[in-house]
Amino acid sequence: MDATLTLREGASTTPAHQARKGCLRTGKEYVESLRDGRRVWTGGQEVEDVTANPVLGPGISLLAETFDAQFDPALRDVTTIVGDDGTRTSRSWQLITKPEDFVERRKLIEYTTLKTAGSFGRPPDLAPLIAVGLYARKPIFEHASQDVDFSRNIDTYLEYGRRNNIIAAEVLADPQADRSAGSSASKGLLRVVERRKDGVILRGAKSVGSIAAQADEIIFSNLTRPDFPPEGCVWGAIPVATEGLKLVCRESVSHPGADPFDHPLASRGEESDQLIIFDNVFVPNERLFNVGDPELLKLYGPVTLWVHWHILSRLAVKADLFVGIGQLVMDVLGTAQIPQVRAYLAELICYAQTLKAFVVAAERLAQPSENGVLAPDVNMLTAGRLHSIEHYPRIIHTVQELCGQGLVMRFQKADFANSEIGPLLDELLPGRNMSARDKNRLMNFIWDLTTDSHAGRTELFENVNATPANFLRERLYREYPRENIMSVARDLAGI
Fold it and tell me: Can you say how many angstroms the Cα of residue 96 is from the centroid of all Cα atoms in its chain?
């Protein structure tokens, strides 16, 4: 299917564009595949090799570890699944057709979340759920076009991703610009500028392309809005190395090259965000899931139910991590006997349990989609995501409160290594059953997770990724079924 794609000169054909032995890649193979001629800019300079770039490289190395985990006997069944044909593939592309599939798939979410302490809002197992969602709604796509077989393309792409073990980035947001003139006037709107027999030419941009520069592919779409132009009705997927695709990275918020003692989390790299510019990009018919049909774009919500389930599941895992961190801090500082401090931890526990309850309820109320995939309950997901983002800032503040001055009075490895002041720090700053150095390392980790610029970006992203609260409230109002209980209320009131 990729033979018609226009790749940049020198682009790699391994593994995504060449037949391979088996369906799983090693971390080394993943890293090598990114040396494909893609065009990426960071700090005003075009990147020659994303894998060696100090901004993008550490995050790529971290992602490479998730590929190697597929071959780890302790993680193999968490990260992979054996199909009916006996082939072992990444669990990222798993179809959820029975209740226990949710439980098994959530184990992968837990792994990818804890791998980055929840700092990657778009981990490698997220975007495949777009393909799962498209497959789930496939019958609606079957008769949408006489020119392009969108239904067959959905099947092909799901199998392509599964067989080639790819990482995809999913992009929806438009570039932020003046919206007062309406979407039809937006120069940045991704749109079809030429329709050809074998595909389309796209121009425009998509924003917040998290992980795109570190991924193999980009799955792109628009959302219909009032006064939306027909040429903006497009949905598809292309390799990052496609001719005419340009990725501009936002400023780095991690600390590449820093000593892990000073920045245990931020030194490991980050999920980079990109502005993705389509400069007359050709997309062949085989890579399109919609072109020209505004009704299909309205399916974005139903298609992304599994993505929203992933987001809420990841936030629940991260909330549980906050509980563990909070208890660890209380033990180290010897504050567990103080009722007011225990109340802080109870708040963290309540948040974690509430998110977990929303996840389990969404799974228990799941119903088969048009194509037999179990769809988690939309209202439970929406209410859970709303609860998560409304309380997230308070939870971060609660963790900070538990740490007290520890987050303010942190010291670097060089301070402890100094022959004069190091021994004094060791003497003055130990914790309960923990050395001063290890206590300081713990506070450095919590700083990266809650307070540093790395954490600030994550907090902002969680709000954008979950959809702003007012939009979620509006969705709940539109979609929550109220007719039956209104009838009961009328009867009780004697109306």
Answer: 19
Q: 479 pairs with which residues across the strands?
A: none
Single-letter amino acid, residue 435: S
- ∠ CA 59-65-70, nearest 5°, is 140
The domains located in the chain, with CATH, are 1-301 (2.40.110.10), 304-493 (1.20.140.10)
- Look up residue 376 and give its DSSP letter: P
pLDDT tens for the chain, residues 1 to 495: 444 566 665 554 344 444 345 799 999 999 999 999 999 999 999 999 999 999 999 999 999 999 999 999 999 999 999 988 899 999 999 999 999 999 999 999 999 999 999 999 999 999 999 999 999 999 999 877 668 899 999 999 999 999 999 999 999 999 988 777 554 456 789 999 999 999 999 999 999 999 999 999 999 999 887 778 889 999 999 999 999 999 999 999 999 889 999 999 999 999 999 999 999 999 999 999 999 999 999 999 999 999 999 999 999 999 999 999 999 999 999 999 999 999 999 999 999 999 999 999 999 999 999 999 999 999 999 999 999 999 999 999 999 999 999 999 999 999 999 999 999 999 999 999 999 999 999 999 999 999 999 999 998 888 877 677 888 899 999 999 999 999 999 999 999
Q: Within a 10 A sphere around the Cβ of 193, how many other Cβ atoms?
A: 13
Rounded CA separation 206/204 (Å): 7
Element containing residue 318 per DSSP (H, E) = helix 305-333
Q: What is the sign of the dihedral through the CA atoms of 389, 390, 392 and 396?
A: positive
- pTM for the structure as a whole: 0.93
